Amino acid sequence: MRPGELIASDRVRGPLGTEDLSRAWHVLGAVMDPEVPVVSVVDLGIVRAVDEQDGELHVVVTPTYSGCPATEVIERDIEQALLGAGFAPRLERCLTPAWTTDWISAEGRERLRVYGIAPPVGSSSKLSLLGKTPEVCCPQCGSAHTERLSEFGSTACKALYRCKDCLEPFDYFKCI
Ligand SMILES: [Zn+2]
Fold first, then answer.
1. pLDDT at position 74, please?
2. Cα-to-centroid distance, 34 and ligand 1 (Å)
3. CATH 3.30.300.130: which residues of the chain?
4. Confidence label for 156 from pLDDT (cuts 50, 70 and 90)
5. Distance 132 CA to ligand 1 centre (A)
6. Which residue ranges does the record assign to the MIP18 family-like domain (predicted)?
7. What is the distance in A from the centroid of ligand 1 to the CA of 134?
8. What are the residues whose beta carbon lies below 5 Å from ligand 1 (ion)?
């Protein structure tokens, strides 16, 4: 048995109280996105709900971009973190409603910016209705004087931009 590994009987079993659930949220808040290791699965809005079902910790997860290769990694990380904290997690993948960048928290957006990725601009539904290109600000200097170099950045969910003022290229987390 490795250190930190819990035997089944040590696990938190139901009924789970409010304290247990808030501890679970706390644990989830430390599970980082594998592609952007500064934002957690809670910041991104991937974790939709946490409750107790039949003594197990029931976690509803909505993957970000469909077909995003990180999805399975994320689900495994969530499971491992909760197991490590003594929970008996059961994940449910929920695909409707589909994840949108609107679900990224204010803290998550700020962490993206500090990390050098321009957070999604505006609301996904409004943008798609208008079909217009958002005004993306440079995460380095804050300038709105930017240009899109490529529809795809380091991953499919990001676009590559460049700041015309500080000349730094940067990723923009596309709004969906
Ligand atoms: Zn700049």
1. 93
2. 26
3. 8-93
4. confident
5. 22
6. 25-83
7. 16
8. 138, 140-141, 143, 163, 165-166
